[in-house]
C-alpha cells in the first residue's frame, strides 16, 4: 500500500513539475517575442520528436557558451530551417543514440532561434563542457563564409536575453567549438568573428 502511495505521489509531483516547466517555457517564449529582438521556435513548432533529456546542467547559470556549426545545409526560411533541425535531431537520436538533438539552441539564417535542449539541460555537443555550457549552433557549414547578419543578430539577442532572465552568467565566456575539440566547427569565419568579442576565451 505504501509503495502504491509513493508511486502515486511521485507521479503527481512529476506531472506538476512538467506543467511548471511548460508554463516557464511559455513565459520565456512570450517574453523573448515581446522583446522584439529574437523569436524562439519551440520544439513543438519545428516538429520535434519526443525527447528524453532530464539531466540538468551542473552549473546554473552556466558560465560558458560554445559556438558551433551543424555542418548541414544552410537555411534561410523557417520551413528550411525547421527541416534541418529535424534532420539533426533524427541523426542524433537514431545514429548517435542520444536523448535529443545535441545542442541547447540552433540559429538559422532566417534570423530565428530554434530551441533544442533549452537553457537547463545538459547537451551532447562538446566533451568536457556539456554540463557547464550552452551549446549554440549555427545551422549550416561555415568553413568558407560567415553566417548572415540576421543569424548573428539572433545569436547576440539570445545571449543578452539569457543573461537578463538569469539563464546565463553575466560573466559568461564565449568559446569556439574548435578551441576545445579536434573539429573544424564552427569554421574559421565564425571563430574569427567571436575572437573579437571581449568575453571570448581561447584555450
Please render the helix and strand layout as text.
Elements: H1 2-35, E1 40-41, H2 43-46, E2 64-69, H3 78-94, E3 105-107, E4 113-115, E5 133-138, H4 149-164, E6 173-176, H5 188-194
Parallel strand pairs: 1-4, 2-5, 2-6, 3-5
Antiparallel strand pairs: 3-4
Give an overview in words.
This protein has 203 residues and is an alpha/beta fold. Helix content is 38%, strand content 12%. The protein has five helices and six strands, in the order αβαβαβββαβα. It has helices spanning 2-35, 43-46, 78-94, 149-164, 188-194; strands spanning 40-41, 64-69, 105-107, 113-115, 133-138, 173-176. A six-stranded mixed beta sheet has the order 1-4-3-5-2-6, with helices on both faces. The chain is globular and about 35 Å long. Mean pLDDT is 88; it is low at 8-19.
Q: How much of the residues is beta strand, in percent?
A: 5-15%
- What would you call the shape? globular
Q: Describe the main β-sheet briefly.
A: 6 strands, mixed
Give the N-terminus to C-terminus distance in angstroms: 56 Å
Helices, by number, come to 5
Mean pLDDT: 88
Oligomeric form of this entry?
single chain
- Residue share in helix: 25-40%
Q: Poorly predicted ranges (pLDDT <50, ≥5 residues)? A: 8-19
Order of secondary-structure elements:
HEHEHEEEHEH
Count of distinct strands: 6
Question: Which structural class is indicated by helix and strand composition?
Answer: alpha/beta
The Rg value, from CA coordinates, equals 17 Å
Strand order of the largest sheet: 1-4-3-5-2-6
Amino acid at each position: 500500500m505504501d509503495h502504491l502511495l509513493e508511486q502515486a505521489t511521485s507521479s503527481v509531483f512529476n506531472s506538476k513539475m512538467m506543467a511548471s516547466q511548460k508554463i516557464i517555457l511559455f513565459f520565456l517564449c512570450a517574453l523573448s517575442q515581446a522583446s522584439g529582438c529574437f523569436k524562439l521556435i519551440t520544439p513543438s513548432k519545428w516538429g520535434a520528436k519526443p525527447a528524453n533529456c532530464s539531466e540538468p546542467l551542473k552549473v546554473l547559470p552556466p558560465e560558458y557558451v560554445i559556438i558551433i556549426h551543424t555542418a548541414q545545409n544552410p537555411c534561410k526560411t523557417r520551413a528550411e530551417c525547421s527541416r534541418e533541425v529535424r534532420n539533426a535531431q533524427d541523426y542524433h537520436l537514431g545514429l548517435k543514440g542520444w536523448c535529443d538533438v545535441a545542442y541547447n539552441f540552433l540559429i538559422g539564417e532566417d534570423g530565428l532561434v530554434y530551441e533544442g535542449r533549452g537553457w537547463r539541460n545538459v547537451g551532447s555537443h562538446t566533451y568536457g563542457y556539456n554540463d557547464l555550457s550552452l551549446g549554440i549552433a549555427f545551422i549550416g557549414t561555415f568553413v568558407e563564409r560567415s553566417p548572415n547578419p540576421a543569424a548573428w543578430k539572433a545569436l547576440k539577442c539570445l545571449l543578452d536575453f539569457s543573461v537578463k532572465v538569469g539563464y546565463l552568467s553575466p560573466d559568461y565566456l564565449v568559446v569556439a567549438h574548435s578551441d576545445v575539440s579536434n573539429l573544424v566547427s564552427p569554421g574559421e569565419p565564425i571563430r574569427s568573428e567571436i575572437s573579437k568579442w571581449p568575453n571570448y576565451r581561447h584555450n
